[in-house]
Design goal:
- InterPro entries: FAD-bd_OxRdtase, FAD/NAD-bd_sf, FAD/NAD-binding_dom, FAD/NAD-linked_Rdtase_dimer_sf, Rubredoxin_C.
- The chain is about 25% helix and about 30% strand.
- It is built from eleven helices and 26 strands.
- Helix 1 runs parallel beside helix 8.
- The longest helix has 15 residues.
- The chain is globular and about 60 Å long.
């Protein structure tokens, strides 16, 4: 059996480990357009912050490919999937045949078309190790950096570079920061905290036109000068290869509970896919590293001939900015139970006698218990919810449930 994997991040690594659990001998080929050993992309901001280095960013040990019998073709892009003939065409002219294929092509930056963008001298995105290195090369203590986008990518970039430059200004059309994962109250706490650290914010506005080193804002008409521009408006699923190959694609590549596409023997995992979200009870994009790994692992197991299902996808985020932690999960529907002291914040969302989502800022200890309630769809009248609401702990569960949860933790 010849397995081929496109990509080299969490979904690809999950696939390798899923295959090797059931097939120790099959030939695995991994193809990726980046030239690096597998690394954790969320750590690129910490690289610039000086809290990690390239060695510690590696997602698996140096000998990972060797130990798992993986042939790597790095720094080369796949340009075409021929599903009928089961072969790939690479940008170096090479062709590669496969029996089973995984596409884990991730996502690509969304850069909106803006007048004058071609004039900008130092414009960057912030998703890859090369992005971080290129940005770092132009930064000086006198640099004024404009970040367009107040989402996860834009704010992590701001955190990573603020100590290196004169100023960082973040502009976003949304009225509050982290609008994709926080509600208004939670966002206000985080924005105030980040502003205290020195990040400048202009919310509810967007860039109408760029000059070489200037940005004119649409709503206020304000003109901003900058030395470096980071476009962090958002990301799009990288679906081009599978779209051109004839796979069913909505916003992302459509996969079933086995992580298989509509093409025979072709699977997909990670940010490029549109899989089932347990909390939302529908298929949607879950561009999150843990889900990417679990999808890849599921795909690998099925590629190797066993049957494995992944139907517990969940929107989750666990991030920190200068030591202040944020955890979110699920959907924000139903009754909202809020607690805040102006610095810490917790909001639990209750619907149909179940916890369906939460936002926690500050003390995130044992928040995994909330995640377990969502993932297991546990009826709240079967637990001591008053106790869990105040302090999440196992004692709020029945003895039988505690035993099951502890057994599951030991197995992992």
């Amino acid at each position: 059996m010849k397995y081929v994997i496109i990509g080299n991040s969490a979904g690809a690594i999950g696939c390798i480990e899923g295959i090797r659990r059931y097939d120790k001998a099959g030939h695995i080929v991994l193809i990726a357009d980046e030239p690096y050993h597998t690394y954790s992309r969320p750590l690129i901001s910490y690289l610039l912050l000086g809290e990690t280095d390239e060695q510690r960013m590696k997602y698996r040990p140096d000998d990972f490919y060797q130990q798992n019998g993986v042939e790597t073709i790095l720094g080369v892009a796949v340009t075409k999937i021929d599903a009928a003939d089961k072969k790939l065409t690479l940008d170096n002219g090479q062709t590669v045949k496969y029996d089973k294929l995984l596409t884990a092509t991730g996502s690509i930056p969304f850069v909106p078309s803006t007048k004058g963008m071609e004039k900008v001298q130092n414009a960057f995105t912030f998703m890859t190790l090369d992005d971080a290195k290129a940005l770092d090369k132009v930064l000086t203590p006198a640099s004024r950096v404009l970040v367009v986008g107040a989402g996860l990518i834009g704010l992590k970039c701001a955190e990573g570079i603020l100590h290196k430059v004169q100023s960082v200004t973040v502009v976003d059309l949304a009225e509050h920061v982290l609008s994709s994962i926080l509600n208004e109250k939670g966002a206000a706490i985080m924005q105030a905290y980040l502003a205290e650290k020195g990040v400048n914010f202009i919310m509810g506005d967007c860039v109408a036109e760029f000059g070489k080193n200037t940005a004119k804002l649409k709503n206020s008409g304000q003109k901003l000068e900058f030395d470096a521009l980071v476009m962090a408006v958002g990301v799009l699923p990288n679906t081009e290869l599978l779209t051109n190959a004839g796979a069913a694609v909505d916003r992302g590549v459509l996969v079933d509970e086995h992580c298989q596409t509509t093409l025979p023997d072709v699977y997909a995992a990670g940010d490029c896919t549109q899989g089932y979200d347990l909390a939302a009870a529908k298929k949607r994009i879950l561009a999150l590293l843990p889900n990417a790994y679990l999808q890849g692992e599921c795909a690998g197991a099925n590629m190797a001939g066993t049957e494995k299902v992944f139907n517990t996808g969940l929107a989750m985020n666990s991030i920190g900015f200068w030591g202040k932690h944020v955890m979110t999960a699920g959907v924000y529907e139903g009754e909202a139970l809020e607690e805040t002291d102006g610095v810490n914040y917790k909001c639990l969302f209750i619907k149909n006698n179940r916890l369906v989502g939460f936002i926690i800022i500050g003390d995130v200890a044992r928040a995994g218990i909330y995640t377990a309630l969502i993932r297991n769809q546990k009826p709240l009248d079967e637990v001591d919810f008053d106790l869990i609401r105040e302090h999440p702990q196992l004692m709020a569960f029945s003895r039988c449930d505690r035993a099951k949860m502890l057994a599951g933790a030991k197995e992992e």
